[in-house]
Amino acid sequence: AGKITKIFITHLHGDHFFGLPGLLCTISLQSSADTSPRPPVEIYGPLGLGNFIRRSLELSHSQLLFPYVVHELVPTSDQCPAEEFKDFSSLAQPEAAPPGAQGRRIHLDPEEDSYLLLEDEQLVVKGFRLFHRIPSFGFVVEEKARTGRLNVQKLQELGIPAGPLYGKLKTGSTITLENGLRVSPSDVLHHPIPGRKICILGDCSGIVGNAAVSLCFGADILIHEATLDDSQEEKAREHGHSTPKTAAGFAELCRVKRLVLNHFSQRYKPVALRASQGDATVATLLKAQAQEVFRGGDVTLAEDFLTIVIPMKK
Amino acid sequence: AGKITKIFITHLHGDHFFGLPGLLCTISLQSSADTSPRPPVEIYGPLGLGNFIRRSLELSHSQLLFPYVVHELVPTSDQCPAEEFKDFSSLAQPEAAPPGAQGRRIHLDPEEDSYLLLEDEQLVVKGFRLFHRIPSFGFVVEEKARTGRLNVQKLQELGIPAGPLYGKLKTGSTITLENGLRVSPSDVLHHPIPGRKICILGDCSGIVGNAAVSLCFGADILIHEATLDDSQEEKAREHGHSTPKTAAGFAELCRVKRLVLNHFSQRYKPVALRASQGDATVATLLKAQAQEVFRGGDVTLAEDFLTIVIPMKK
């Protein structure tokens, strides 16, 4: 836990965020030996989260040994049934935020139809809107594309000598040769190497707006809930949840490579999800229902502590 | 969880109450099939707890399928170092408490030096003050004594005929025989049968006030923390915690029958606490340190899911 630097909360149902103050205390315990100053842990989640965290830590006299900051996504009222929408915008943000740790309120970018959570040299993380009993969000974590490899054959054809000029082209500069020829990076670089893309959706019975599909398009992994099986579709929808068909339909639409289903109702016992034979009828059912719609890709049923490795592209 | 009717929180450190909103949701899930009206779940804990629960449930849109009520113990400022004392008395109690579920604020009874939490025909539960980093409480759950058995020999000697008069005497009424003799229950009943007494202390480095010893005196079980072993006594005290010696000293003073130590620092691995050989050196150490002081009684090191049966007295 001591290595966590960013935390993302999809929505404010108890089973998705009540554990957060405790997790922060655990991070604090595990980092107590480390006295070097560290950047704040950044927490992203729906409006109201900051107040909850601050109040919980205040009430429990918890003095975290690291700074943290809460950035709050402001939902729109079409993310849940009208009667369930609560406006937490008047909830005070932490009145005693540590210096430099004042969280932002992140509003929907109306042009992009998404929330820009963070961007650095390597990564972009964006949020998009889901429909649930209360406002819920999906997150896309995307690595930026890396510069393509140098096309050595082309470099040689153009008579460019190996050395510093290669470096300039590789880092994006156009160069001019002694013979007056101008060479731009795109002339001598292979295609950029795409980064990996991971999409994680909170509880939902569907998406809101048009951006989700383009944001998730071609993702290496899409993590989508499937609380109930397809025979319970009406009940699932009524509670703001999905079935394998819903999840797989979205995966198919986005042409993702791999679909991971999670958040199964307790009626589907973990052992049944894991078993490969015998008890596996229910698991087989959930998987089969997803596979029937998501013909192109791989379906995995999540279980606790599941680890999936996504290799870097070359 | 669906059978829980009362919950007691010793103090407001995160590892002792952050799980409460989640527990309430679990109780709600497990009672969802049961539509019969039920009395509210009663929650007892330090001042500030009600506000936290209400806010957590409100933020998470949790609609519990049962009523609950929070009774708050008002601590005194000598229960922790002066600089740590926070006054939560201005925190609003639940503004939207369900009808009939308005919690009480329970103040220290200055004569008894204790807090009366609940009393019914069978049980009395009282709280008393502990010293910790923040105000902490101990609880005593005591069964009321049952009326002693009838002394049939005496009844016969007095010439009282078997029948309704036995019942009157047993339920506490004085009777007058035809010959004018007045017989009171104490004349013909054996001694009352004492109830069982269980004492559970929150985190503490010691007690505050004079009532704790008399409240815990002769308890069947005393559950007391021992965060660190005796060689770390100074450090334990500094953090408001106890060692086996502290715990055993209190157990000895109260002449309890059995001492259960809990809340061990992570440095004492659970496996070491459980192992009967080999790895058991640390466990042996903690137990031996307690046993050295608490010579008269039994010492148990608690572990998760430990169950202890206390038979009714006869």
TrEMBL record, chains A, B:
Oligomer and partners: Homodimer.
Species name: Upupa epops
Keywords: Endonuclease, Hydrolase, Metal-binding, Nuclease, tRNA processing, Zinc
The keyword Transmembrane helix is annotated on this UniProt entry: no
Requisite cofactors: Zn(2+)
InterPro entries for this protein: RibonucZ/Hydroxyglut_hydro (IPR036866), RNase_Z/BN (IPR013471)
HAMAP family: RNase_Z_BN (MF_01818)
GO molecular function terms attached to this record: 3'-tRNA processing endoribonuclease activity; metal ion binding
One GO CC annotation: nucleus
Record protein name field: RNZ1 protein
